[in-house]
Amino acid sequence: MKKRKLMGGFNRFRLILTLGLAVLLPAAALIVLNFYQLRSFERDKVLEKTIDRDFQEVLAFSEKTMNKKIYAKVDEAREMFPAPEDPEREEKLNKILAENPVFTHAFLFDEQGDVFQTQPSQESDKYVREEHDRLEDSYRAWFSSKQETRSLVEMLQKNAQHIYFGADQAKRADGPGYLLTAVFVLPNLPGDRMVIGGVAFDPCYMKTFFPAMLNELVKDKSEQGGNSVAMIIYHLDPDMREVKPMAATSGWGEGKPEVSRKFEDVFKGLSLGIKFQGTSVQQLGESWMHRNFIILGILSALIVIGLILTKHVVSKEVALAKLKSDFVSNVSHELRTPLALIRLYAETLELGRITTKEKKHDYYKIIRKESERLTSLINNILDFSRIEAGHKEYEFRDTDIADLVRNTLDSYRYQIEQQGFTLKEEIDESVPTVCVDREAIARALLNLMNNALKYSTEDKFLRVKLYRENGSVKLEVEDHGIGITSREQTKIFEKFYRTGDPLVHNTKGSGLGLSLVRHISDAHGGSIDVDSIPGKGSRFTLTLPLNGKTRFAAAHA
Ligand code: ADP
Predict the structure, then answer these.
(1) Residue 408: enclosing H or E segment and its boundaries?
(2) What does pTM read for this prediction?
């Protein structure tokens, strides 16, 4: 006994140790690690920094894309520029303007003189004319200084693209615009020639160019997935306090850019900005953190639930394994005792030492009783194994249940009385016939009575009561025995289960009887209930429905 208890304790300890080492520790370590990692992400603003880096890249790429377009246009015009000594240079500049409506002016400055042509269609515009004169004057003034011209030409020669961009504000009837000019050295001219060509972009073209570019870039970015972004091009405000937008994508709304980049090469004086549509990096960071903490919390809860479930299941398995090993030892003990007795009495009789008739009669009775006990035990085990294998079949027949109970009692009466029990029979003869399996009901009753005898001490009392109540027939077996604690009352119907009462452990049993009774009552569509007070006694009630068979048939249809 002690050894078995020790084994049980050891198993549980080992189970807890295994669960602890194999699951709990790594899971807890993972959770704690994740938690601290998230905290450090939060502290170091990892997400914000990642987004910032991504935005910087997007802006750099955007600037490059926009520059490329403008460079391509200027390059195209540059290739067409006439040589300074070309007598048709004015016509050729006009041709450039005619073929490239994106330019308003095209000009050529040379030591011999300058040509400054304007798009013929725009010449009637007073603002354009003013612009023509202003630009021509300022370039001429600038070009008159030999030194400045030389340093510009040298700078352009060194520059890989040979182009330099300048920006100015343009005035037009519909308001101000962005005037982008490009100056360059002509191709195929020796490096020491002081010749400068140039074009000025039409401010109206820039008004469509910027939004179109921004939309295209934002589209490209949104195709890569993630939150949709909005972009803006704005005038650079030296103190960065006010953003004066020049062009923005539709989702811009209000507010400042999250990240911005000053155009250095082409679009001088302008900046490019980016932000998320409808949210901010800070909000995103917060909700990301929030989500991660929630996921971590749910995961932790799941792990804990999983652990509890595992422990529960494993404990159940351990308990069942223990019950099974108890069962084997109980059953072998139960089989051995009647067999030993039968053998002992049979041998004694065989030796012919018993002379008196009464003694012989007693011995025969013991042999019969013990073999009956053996039979009932083996029947229980056989029934149990049939049930376990799903082969148990019942034969339902209309039965006079009062008669069945009386007959079963009669066959058991001798044993009851011999053990000194007071038997109270309360059989209501008017109980109608019930459709049952005779053998099964008799076995259930025998098991219940057998338990009442086994688990009674001083007060040897047994009451068997049969009566009708509403739509069912009830069979009660009551004793004044050791009783069952309420905690164990549901468990006793489980297979192999035996209560922890010391008397139970000193009494032979397999823990199968009540599980069979429950199976029988279930098969009849009825139920088995127990009402018990420890130390006072127990009352088992088997309820059989009067229309049991039909109900059972319906349940299994
Ligand atoms: P067994 O009697 O072979 O151990 P059962 O399935 O018949 O198995 O009973 C299960 C357990 O329920 C018993 O071991 C005992 O602890 C408890 N029990 C059953 N009937 C009674 C009763 N009449 N009084 C007290 N305890 C009972």
Answers:
(1) helix 401-418
(2) 0.55
Ligand 1 site, residue 513, Cβ cutoff 6 A: yes
Q: pLDDT tens digits, residue range 267-286? A: 998 999 999 887 777 888 88
User: pLDDT by residue (tens digit) across 489-545?
Assistant: 989 998 878 888 887 877 777 788 899 899 999 999 999 999 999 999 999 999 999
The per-residue pLDDT for 548 is: 53
Q: Of 455, 478, 503, which is best to mutate to test ligand 1, by the most ligand atoms within 8 angstroms of its C-beta? A: 455
How far, in Å, are 117, 195, 274 from residue 85 at the CA level? Answer: 16, 11, 48
Rounded Cα–Cα distance for residues 428 and 413 (Å): 18
Burial 129-152 (b: 16+ CB within 10 A, else e): eebbeebbeebeeebeeeeebeeb
**Which of 504, 517, 528 is the pocket-test mutation for ligand 1 (most atoms within 8 Å of CB)?**
504
The two structure tokens encoding residue 222: 């949104």
Contact between residue 100 and residue 76 where contact means Cβ atoms under 8 Å apart? yes
Q: How many CA atoms lie within 13 A of 46 on its CB side?
A: 9
